[in-house]
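Posting for a labmate who doesn't have an account.
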Amino acid sequence: MARPKLLPDNFTLALVGIVILASLLPCCGGVATAFNWITNVAIGLLFFLHGAKLSREAIVAGAMHWRLHLVVLLSTFALFPLLGLGLRPLLTPLVTPALYTGILFLCTLPSTVQSSIAFTSMAKGNVPAAVCSASASSLLGIFITPALVGLVVENHGASTGSLWHTVGNIVLQLLVPFIAGQLLRPVIGKWVDRNKAMLKFVDQGSILLVVYVAFSETVNEGIWHSMSLSSLAGLLVMNILLLAIALFITAFTAKRLGFSHADQITIIFCGSKKSLASGIPMAKVIFASHAVGAVVLPLMLFHQIQLMVCAVLAQRWGACKTTSELAPETKNAGVPARR
């Protein structure tokens, strides 16, 4: 039986299930402490495997395309925070302060890696540049995101610690395992490449663990009693609006700057997306534990919206590209070749 087109992917369904589970059976006490420890280990393992997976050759191959990477980084770390702050008059009447903090945090995050590359490939874009740009965004985000949080989130009531303390925690929990994976890539790289299913399991499993622990904390604090359906509806509208503006600006800018069609596709997909895989672990390190659930809720919703919208765009652009490539052959079909 074919899978219904409107049915979300299995991971999204698992995220929804985890939120429901945490709402009905939240962990607390010693169980929560154990889950926190397991989650920290899983996150460290996740970034270690990502470090071992990332090819240095791919980084070097795409690094020379500096204009494209600059546009993507400016979109990711400048355009989005400005949009989050600029839309404040529209956002604050529709969502709670905690959800607005989550939207601001979403705007500071790096781009996705896997889905940006996958959609770029599907749409016949510049895949090597996408690999380099998305990877650079993810790596630089370890330093840039906490700095941006200190600038745009802390001033709006977020409960964050010292900036340098936050950066130190992120370096120890995320960057050190990543560098260790890179250093050990000559030894374990081929094994990791052969076992991509394991990386996907660790990737998704660590996110599910963080979501369960985070929402357990917020449920114990009474998140669902303090959040109305109108706030959730407002969050949905704002996420759609944020993605639409980002897609329009990245597409317009890439075209105006004279990039090729393949590079335009790369800029649109890498510059308009936000990473759930990096965002949830960072939220756990940056924010107080009881606030993580509300902070990551906008990110979880934005993640699903961006996947659905970008999947449609990638399929459409990929089909158009294929048609245009075949057009000359179709046009000359049946016309005898000149001898």
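Reply:
Got it, the structure tokens are right above this. Residues 155-161, 325-339 have pLDDT under 50 and may be disordered.
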